[in-house]
Amino acid sequence: MRFELIDRVLDRQEDSLTGIKTVTASEEYLADHFPGFPVLPGVMMLEALAQAARLFVAGQENPATRPLVVTQVRNVRYGNMVRPGQALTVHVTLRKQDDEGYDFQGTGKVDEQVAVQGRFRLEPLTTA
User: Cα-Cα-Cα-Cα dihedral of 123, 124, 127, 128, to 10°?
Assistant: First the structure.
């Protein structure tokens, strides 16, 4: 399954990207998380950060040619829940780029309240 969580890029700077994910009640994964009290799963918040980082890399002068995958996640913390009808604004900042990949710091907020934050690394997918 392929899905895009970032609805729109709001801003792009030399070392960062800001995007938005609007959560709707029709999203399939909300039916089971949690019945009667749907909230965006934490893993989907983290995926929104990773997708924003991939969009950032794709817009660089020499983007990675292979698909980027999350290879490391550190210091991830979750704050407020994200409910249908709310928008998660994600901001990712490139901390470091080397020959093997990209290190990012990311934050997702709803109405200026932190819903997710942490550091993660993207590296090109290797084939066996």
Answer: -20
What does the DSSP 8-state code read for residue 34?
S
Contact yes or no for 22/90 (Cβ under 8 A)? no
In a domain, 59, yes or no: yes
Rounded Cα–Cα distance for residues 5 and 19 (Å): 10
Catalytic residue from among 22, 27, 33, 93? 33
What tokens appear for 13 in the block? 């700077």
Number of domains in the chain: 1
Range of the domain at 114: 8-124
The predicted-structure confidence for 61-108, as pLDDT tens digits, reads as follows 888 788 999 999 999 999 999 999 999 999 999 999 999 999 999 999
| 91 flagged as catalytic | no
The residues, any chain, with a CB within 8 Å of residue 15's CB and separated by 6 or more, are 93, 94
